[in-house]
Design brief:
Length: 90
């Protein structure tokens, strides 16, 4: 079966493609951007840390309860950083 402009499938396919393009365009232009880079949590010294510094980098953000003194996760996190820091991991 030849698919030409008079075929029923052509208008349906054209309509579907148009919907996909419009949907992608709407999400790109009109959906709100992620507020992640607008966040400014406090660092370990109590000073604001601007997440915009991390834009374009691979980052792992970890919320740790360091004031309680029980921080066994630091060893694993430090090993992860040492393994991937040369690849731009921060």
């Amino acid at each position: 079966m030849r698919m030409g402009r008079n075929n029923v499938l052509y208008p349906s396919l054209l309509f579907l493609c148009t919907l996909v393009v419009l949907s992608a365009s709407y999400r790109y232009f009109f959906m709100p951007k992620s507020p992640f880079y607008d966040l400014k949590p406090l660092d370990k010294d109590g000073k604001p840390f601007d997440f915009k510094q991390l834009e374009g980098q691979v980052a792992l953000i970890v919320n740790v309860a360091s004031q309680c003194g029980y921080t066994p996760q630091y060893e694993g996190l430090e090993a992860l950083y040492k393994k991937y820091k040369d690849r731009g991991f921060v």
